Amino acid sequence: MLQRRCLTWLIAWALMLLTVSSVLARDTEAERIIEVYGLQGWVRVQQWEQLLVDLEGQSTRRQLMEVNDFFNRMHFSDDVRVWGEEDYWATPLEFLGAGAGDCDDFAMAKYLTLRELGVPEDRLRLHYVKALSLNQFHMVVTYQGANTRNPDVLDNLNSSILPASERTDLLPIYSFNGSALWMSKRLEGGQRISDSRGLSSLSDWQKRRAQGVLRVPRHKRP
Predict the structure, then answer these.
(1) pLDDT digits (tens, 9 = 90+) for 118-137
(2) Angle at Cα 203 formed by Cα 44 and Cα 123, nearest 5°?
């Protein structure tokens, strides 16, 4: 029994290594990801890309649920531990590569993935809130359906997608998407105060994502 189990394990690893070798032979992006984050980081990126394929054309509800569940499997860790900075907005590739991040990374990755799946920008917002139970600042994603004023909340603290009216543990401060910035005391509506280009963290995140920057996590630095 033990010999059979060992043989199965060896075959699985051999097939995976052959797959990786085949990919590296034709894909410099995969090579770069593996060099920075290791094989497991590359596997997580592949799982994300497969998720995008699987969810294309599916209902928005299914997209919300599966994207929320997928990213909530990542580990929560603060930016100092992962990146060596007090506040760093990792791109989805960096977040998946490292396999860990803080609430900003969870929220930004979910938002971008939903946009890639075709969810309209005006239905989505990133909300900067205070998590009252933890007494700390936090970020979540909301989706505003066409026929409701009560948006759904995607959160890494609570994996259930709940309407904003049930998230009394969150105190909204402001919200934004790719176009605008709002001040709001609720998770819906709010007063538009500017476009979102004034958010330096967002601008830096967008620039690094467009350039394909892959930052090395703190634990892998020399």
Answers:
(1) 999 999 999 999 999 999 99
(2) 70
